[in-house]
Design brief:
mainly alpha, globular, 19 helices
Length: 407
């Protein structure tokens, strides 16, 4: 009697899943970072396409343990802190002057976060090196793109110089995840080379937030390599203190400007006028420090002329002005639990997780806000890259014939 076997069918499904996975990672790692530099619209097309391909691949060839990963995620304090922050932001739609745009913004953030989480949770174990190396290759392609834009600007062929800064932001956010993928495979020399190239590009671009983000990530990386637990504790405390003390620092800034510079804060050069505007907005209505003015108030308020044009559009100010002290407490809890969770990650990958978190927080403090979906999408891609590194094979060298002979 002839027996039918489904092994060929399973092999075909696995091969199709591997092909789709390769294309999906290529879309996210190779094309999306450069697309973020050249055209935000192209980025918002490539990201869902890459995510969809990876999820279809996971459906064709499911991995074991997805349920356990979901239970671990649900039991994570950082997940609950992030949910609390999102829930409070959703509740603030009741008193925001812009409820419909605010709801659309929250929906976009939620969809992006859920898409990245689904990809990370369903990623297969023992990711191939050829898939993992796509992320550092993508960062190199991004550097080439930035150089091409600079060359075009020198030839007066590219009038939008802001695209170079956008590429620098993408580089600062994806550099450490790419380095983590190289380190996960034992390619530490390549990781250091990529880091040096990133520093060169940051200084050449001349953007203070980009340079500060890379330097913060490198500092945290160097300390985490030597003492991970203590570094996560100390850096977590410092970040939480900055989040919670922001109104106090703003209240003291005019006095400090008078003592140090003998001038009003708004009369100084950039970025001091933005700090002066933030101090005035946060402190003129102290009761609203409790609840905030509602989600999406900063960007929409500036565009509508309700807020000064110098109002900073950065994540730290948006948290306080839009969500108040309750939102700041939830954000601080997310930061604290995030750094503590990194301390329990794989020792080889944890320092790069910490460096990524530090660089992204620095950008949230200095230049990037939650209304910028390009930034949110890059955060999601960085998380997917680190998730891929965590699922990769850590053995990078084959045993020698002499070693095998002993067994």
């Amino acid at each position: 009697m002839t027996q039918l076997s489904d092994a060929p069918r399973s092999d075909a499904a696995a091969d199709a899943a591997q092909l789709l996975s390769r294309i999906g990672y290529a879309a996210l790692a190779l094309a999306t970072p450069s697309a973020a530099t050249l055209s935000s619209r192209a980025m918002f097309v490539l990201f869902p396409v890459g995510v969809a391909l990876l999820l279809v691949a996971a459906t064709l060839d499911p991995v074991a343990g997805v349920g356990a990963r979901l239970r671990a995620l649900v039991a994570s304090p950082v997940a609950w802190a992030a949910v609390a922050l999102f829930a409070w932001a959703a509740l603030s739609l009741l008193w925001t002057p812009f409820p419909i745009p605010g709801a659309q913004r929250l929906l976009k953030i939620a969809m992006t976060a859920l898409a990245a989480t689904a990809v990370i949770v369903t990623a297969r174990d023992h990711l191939r090196a050829t898939d993992l190396y796509l992320f550092p290759i993508g960062v190199l392609i991004l550097m080439v793109t930035i150089f091409a834009l600079w060359f075009a600007e020198q030839q007066t062929l590219e009038p939008d110089a802001g695209r170079i800064d956008a590429g620098g932001i993408a580089m600062a956010m994806l550099l450490f995840p790419a380095m983590g993928g190289l380190a996960a495979r034992g390619r530490n020399g390549y990781a250091r080379t990529l880091m040096l190239l990133g520093l060169v590009y940051a200084f050449a671009i001349g953007s203070a937030p980009i340079t500060a983000a890379l330097l913060a990530g490198i500092a945290v990386l160097s300390f985490a390599v030597s003492d991970l637990e203590r570094t996560m504790r100390d850096v977590g405390r410092a970040a939480v203190a900055l989040v919670l003390a922001a109104p106090l620092l703003l209240a003291l800034s005019p006095t400090l400007a008078h003592l140090i510079f003998h001038a009003r804060l708004g009369a100084l050069g950039a970025p001091y006028p933005a700090i002066a505007a933030a101090a005035s907005l946060v402190l003129h209505d102290l009761p609203r420090l409790v609840t905030g003015h509602g989600v999406d108030t900063v960007v929409r308020g500036v565009d509508a002329g309700l807020l000064p044009t110098m109002t900073p559009r950065v994540g730290l100010f948006e948290i306080w002005y839009e969500l108040g002290i309750l939102g700041a407490l939830a954000a601080a809890a997310s930061v604290w639990f995030g750094f503590r969770a990194i301390g329990r990650a794989a020792p080889r990958l944890a320092p790069y997780l910490a460096a990524t978190f530090a660089a992204d927080l620095t950008l949230a403090f200095l230049s990037e806000g939650f209304a910028q979906m390009t930034w949110i999408t890059l955060l999601a891609i960085g998380g997917i890259a680190l998730g891929a590194a965590a699922r990769s094979q850590y053995r990078t060298t084959r045993p020698s014939a002499a070693g095998l002979a002993r067994f």
